[in-house]
Amino acid sequence: MRRSGQHGRGGNVALGVFIDLKKVFDTVDHAILLAKLEHYGVRGEALGLLASYLGDRSQYVTYGGIESGRGKDECGVSQGSVLGPLFFLIYVNDMVRVSRDLSFALFADDTNIFAEGRDPVELFGRVNWGVGELNRWFRCNSAIVPIQKCFLRFLK
Known about the structure:
elongated; two-stranded antiparallel sheet; 4 helices; 5-stranded antiparallel beta sheet; alpha+beta
């Protein structure tokens, strides 16, 4: 992660962590998504219908009149579908609960985290702990975080 200059107003320092998730729509784990849907109250036939919608999908490519073999989709949600963005939002909805001390701003595959405090060292420690918890959430939810596309910055 890169660090930029430190600035503060009124004695407080703000720190932002900016994360760009990799192929997040393509890596949504169907079993985890279905468990989250059930947690939110989707059960019975409705959950079975959504499991059927997500399961037994395959894809192939046709190029120049030649068709590839069919590959089974075992994870991911279609960005072009009506349900894909909703499924994605349900999938990442609990991400913000990893820390009560941090503020989150989520937009599609971009996750921004903010915190402020008077002592930059203490602030950095709090944010570092929160990012560790967030990393655990990423691992538990099969999200890929390319570290080269992440950075933190002390904000004005």
